[in-house]
Structure formats: C-alpha cells, structure tokens
Amino acid sequence: MSRLSVLAYIFGAVFFVVSCSFAVFYGSKVLTHDLPAEKKQSKEYNYHFVLVPEELDNEYWRLVEQGAKAAADKYGVLLEYAGPNQGNIEDHLKTIEMSAASKVDGILTQGLSDEQFTPLINRVVSSGIPVITVDTDAANSKRLAYIGTDNYYSGFLAGKALIQDTKGKANVAIITGRFYANHQKQRVKGFQDAVKGEKGIHIIDVVESEISRVQAAEKAYQIMKDHPEVNAFFGTSALDGIGIAQVVDKFVKPGKMYIVGFDTLPETLEYIRRGTINATVVQEPYEMGYRAVIMMIDHIEGKSVNPIVHTNTKILRVGDLPLSHLDRRGERK
Q1: Fewer CB within 10 A of the end CB, N or C, for the chain?
Q2: What percent of the chain has pLDDT over 70?
Q3: Contacting residues for 267 by C-beta, under 8 A, at least 6 apart
Q4: Would the pLDDT of 324 be above 80?
Q5: Are 287 and 311 in contact (CB under 8 A)?
Q6: What CATH number does the domain located at 151-282+317-324 have?
Q7: pLDDT grade, residue 38 (50/70/90)?
Q8: Do 47-149+285-302 and 151-282+317-324 fold alike per CATH?
Q9: Would strands 279-282 and 232-235 be described as parallel, antiparallel, or unpaired?
Q10: Above 80 in pLDDT, residue 309?
Q11: Contact (Cβ atoms closer than 8 angstroms) between residue 81 and residue 66
Q12: Among residues 97, 196, 106, which one has the least CA distance to residue 143?
C-alpha cells in the first residue's frame, strides 16, 4: 500500500469518527430538548367522580359543572364531565354504565325516568358505587341522595306568579322540555295545581320542546297559529322561555303576551329586562354541583348525608334584577 493510500485511509477513519461524534452529540441535544429533564409527577387525587348531565353543551348544565369542578378542585377530586352532546336517554344511560364499569368512586347524575333510570341506579349502587341524583330525582331508586330544586314547588311558584301578574285571567300554553322527564312532569303538575282553582285561567295545550330552544320557538309559533286565544306561556326548561320569547318578540305586540320561564341564563335576563319575559323561576345549578361533590365526599368518609336536599327556588321579575342591569343614572336599561 502506498503512502498516499495510507494517508487517505487514516483521513477517512478520522472523518468517520468525528462525524459519528457530532451525530451522537446533536442527537442527544435533540432528545434532551424534546424530553423534560425530570419526569413530572402526575397530580394525585383523593377520589374519582363522574358528573353525567342530560346533555353536555346545555348552558344550565355547564353551571352545574362549574360548581362541581370548583368543589372538586378544592377537595382533591378528579371530576369527569361526560354524557351525550345532545339529549339522548340511551346515551345518557350508557355513560352511567361505562362510568360504573370503570370503577369510579361516585356518580352524579339525573334520575330522568323512573322506568329506565331506577333499575340502572340500583345496579350501580349494588356494585358498590354510590349515586347522587342532581336536579332530577329518582326517588324510588337506591340513590344515596338527591340535591336540587323541589320541582313540584317550582312549578307551583310559576303558577302563582302567573295568577298574580295576570290578575287570574289567562289562556295558557305550556311548553315542557320532555314528557318523560321526572322534573319536567313535576313542574307541569305543580303549575296545574296552582291554577286549577282559578276560573279565569285555562290551560289550552301542553307540548314538548325536547330541550331545544329552536323547537320551543317552533312549538310556540304553532300554538299561536292554532290557538289565537292563547295570551300566556309557561316554559318549564331553561331553553323553553328563550325560544318562546324569540317568537313573541317577532310576532306579538309588546304587552300582549305573558311569559313565565325557567332559570336565569343571560338571554332570559335580557328578555326580562326588555319586558318580553315577565317572570322566571330561579334555581341554583352552581350550588347543586358544588354541594353534590361535597355530599359524595362526606358519604365516602363515613359522614351522614341527608337523603333530600332542596336548593333555593324563587321567582324573579324585572324589579328584582341586580344593579348590573341598571344604567349609570340608576334607571333600568
């Protein structure tokens, strides 16, 4: 081998070693950049709960979720918010079943239908997982407790408000979220019982909106078309009053239609301020979620829990709106 060949061989070997060294060095730099220097410790939780609402994107249930998450964060609970995107009883039941199968520490949900929810809740509780019903009770099940509105009483309050505001003279149509839902049925029954002794008040029709403001608006329009004598509405879910108000705002002269709705979503408050909605039933969804989590913790830790906890319910009218709804001169906006 010539001297030139030897030098070329040595140069090639040195180049190879240097190239490999650079590759290893920069490769390690890339890996070091991509991976944390020290593995982060995952947060530890005391318990794992699941909150299963009627539908995930419902504004009312988002308030329940906010309350539940606030309590969960405070007391070291991993809280999942899971359920159907839009109201679907089969998906709702399936979410409860899946939550139970994953062996969570507790389930918070509605008891929408005695026929379908009671057997499932009983099976879940028998498997060792406590269930608290929120907003809607399954009173005949083995649920640990119920926290939420006294739904019969809330409907009764709405009926009394209508009597007072209309001086006992009205032809009323009721738009309710779902015919099968326990809380909706109780609200309708409470309203009916409140007005049944009033000779000047007549319930003309009761229809279902399927918890949809669009359908509530469509049903309200159809009722006004089919029953021109109707001059009052009662909407039993958070979106019913809003849907009714949208139609009334467009087709009815101000002051010619009385509306009593449910809950205090921003749109509801705006319609009250404008005079389209005359009154609404106030619930406490945030409080329901917050206290439900605490009740579940108390039960797991061996403390006694009341089987029925009713949150506050009242009627709100324009004169009850907070100062945030007043202009700078102290007058109603």
Answers
A1: N
A2: 84
A3: 242, 245
A4: no
A5: yes
A6: 3.40.50.2300
A7: very low
A8: yes
A9: unpaired
A10: yes
A11: no
A12: 106
- Domains of the chain, residue spans: 47-149+285-302, 151-282+317-324
Given a cut of 70, whether residue 87 has pLDDT beyond it is yes
Q: Give the chain's largest Cα–Cα span.
A: 122
**CATH code for the structural domain at 47-149+285-302:** 3.40.50.2300
Tell me which residue of 153, 309, 174, 169 sits closest to 240, measured CA to CA. 174
pLDDT tens, residue by residue, 202-224: 999 999 999 999 999 999 999 99
Cβ of 167: how many Cβ atoms within 10 Å? 9
d(CA 170, CA 175) in angstroms, rounded, equals: 16
